[in-house]
Design brief:
The mean pLDDT is about 95. Helix content is about 35%, strand content about 25%. The chain is globular and about 60 Å long. The chain is an alpha+beta fold and about 375 residues long. The protein folds into three domains: about 120 residues, Rossmann fold, CATH 3.40.50.20; about 140 residues, D-amino Acid Aminotransferase, Chain A, domain 1 (2-Layer Sandwich); about 70 residues, 2-Layer Sandwich (Dna Ligase, domain 1). Bound molecules: adenosine-5'-diphosphate and magnesium ion. Magnesium ion binds next to loops.
């Protein structure tokens, strides 16, 4: 028997960011302290099956998705015990789940809902924070309600665009104008995001965004701007890291610039005046609290040449690859990758305990 905490890293998933998740999870698995934790790796294949990687296995060895034992979390309070599907029985109890899943069905509250139903502790934001953070339209409305500055935006339903492209284009021209950015309401890694210079470019951009979501977000361009990012860590009293800057290799920080062309630069610390840096940190914590985030998040900003700051988005499961901003910013702030994971696991257990203090059922006041 072991008294080590059992942690399970979940990766892959059913989203356009499946491949990115594999890279993030490989780095997380490499940096988890094996003295402190018994580590399990669970791959979620594109068909949604959960597979337990053989010991020492991980996303780098894709045999898991054929050979790995099929496991499930059942939506009944089973304290995080995995159900072994082929054996038809419950298996080991997982003390903390670490979802390293980006995008829909991982970062959007769906899997967090399953953790809640299963009574399991897990790293990161809960159902509400995850769902709000994933929906760019609702996220921005929550930010605006909390007094946070964002680029002006509107949304158009895919169906509305398809039924009346001319009318929709006129609305976009009138209320947003050009250049603008067009994005699916929920995704990440710049999948489906286009910069649109004029009306003629709208059709292609709307069709692309509409491929990924039934609502399309159109937003005023913040260019020219610096793109800066701040990492947040904590539950009730979150802390902000130092601020980092992205210099995209392409016209904007698109999917290719992020993962394929390898031509973007990370500058830590960001080239900001002390006043603007403080502002960014303050806004990062406010954004985190506005959506009731827990554990971790990376908050992304645009800084305009006049020093004004716009919150672009919050990522509740930020990239965790070796070269990703989130672990790098904490490293630059004095926390190693392994220490960062220790903190996240502690925060998950802490919040799990905090939740258990709430009464589930109605009680007559004494
Ligand atoms: N309003 C905007 N002004 C300027 N650049 C933008 C704007 N919106 C998006 N971008 C560019 O597109 C990239 C991806 O957009 P973002 O909203 O961050 O989507 P994702 O969630 O896919 O990362 C940003 O990092 C930035 O380079
Ligand atoms: Mg982004």
């Amino acid at each position: 028997m072991t008294d080590k905490l059992r942690v399970a890293v979940l990766f892959g998933g059913r989203s356009g960011e499946h491949e990115v998740s594999l890279q993030s999870a490989a780095a997380v698995l490499a940096n988890l302290d094996r003295e402190a934790y018994e580590v399990m790796a669970i791959g979620i294949a594109k068909d949604g099956q959960w597979r337990l990687c053989p010991p020492g296995g991980g996303p780098w060895d894709e045999r898991w998705w054929e050979d790995g034992q099929r496991v499930a979390l059942l939506p009944i309070p089973a304290e995080g015990r995995l159900y072994l599907l082929d054996e038809g029985r419950f298996g080991p109890q997982v003390d903390v789940f670490i979802p390293i899943l980006h995008g829909p069905m991982g970062e959007d509250g769906t899997i967090q809902g399953l953790f809640e139903l299963a009574g399991a502790a897990y790293v990161g934001a809960g159902v509400t924070g995850s769902a709000v953070g994933m929906d760019k339209d609702i996220m921005k409305r929550v930010f605006q309600a909390a007094g946070l500055p964002t680029a002006r935006h509107m949304t158009i339903r895919r169906k509305e665009w398809e039924e009346d492209p001319d009318g929709s284009a006129a609305k976009i021209a009138a209320s947003i104008g050009f250049p603008c950015f067009v994005k699916p309401v929920a995704l990440g890694s710049s999948v489906g995001v286009s910069m649109v210079r004029d009306k003629g470019e709208l059709e292609r951009a709307m069709a692309l965004a509409g491929k990924y979501h039934h609502r399309i977000l159109i937003e005023v361009s913040a260019l020219p701007c610096q793109e800066v990012e701040c990492a947040v860590l904590g539950n009730e009293s979150p802390e902000a890291s130092i601020v980092g800057e992205i210099v995209p290799g392409n016209q904007f920080y698109d999917y290719r610039a992020k993962y394929i062309d390898d031509n973007s630069q990370l500058i830590i610390p960001a080239r900001l005046s002390p006043g603007v840096e403080e502002k960014v940190k303050e806004l990062a914590v406010k954004a985190f609290q506005a959506i009731d985030c827990m554990g971790m998040a990376r908050v992304d900003f645009f800084v305009r040449p006049d020093g004004s700051v716009l919150v672009n988005e919050i990522n509740t499961i930020p990239g965790f690859t070796r070269i990703s901003m989130y672990p790098k910013l904490w490293e630059a702030s004095g926390l190693t990758f392994s220490q960062l994971l220790d903190r996240l696991i502690k925060l998950a257990l802490e919040h799990h305990r905090e939740k258990s203090r709430s009464t589930l059922f109605y009680e007559e006041d004494a």
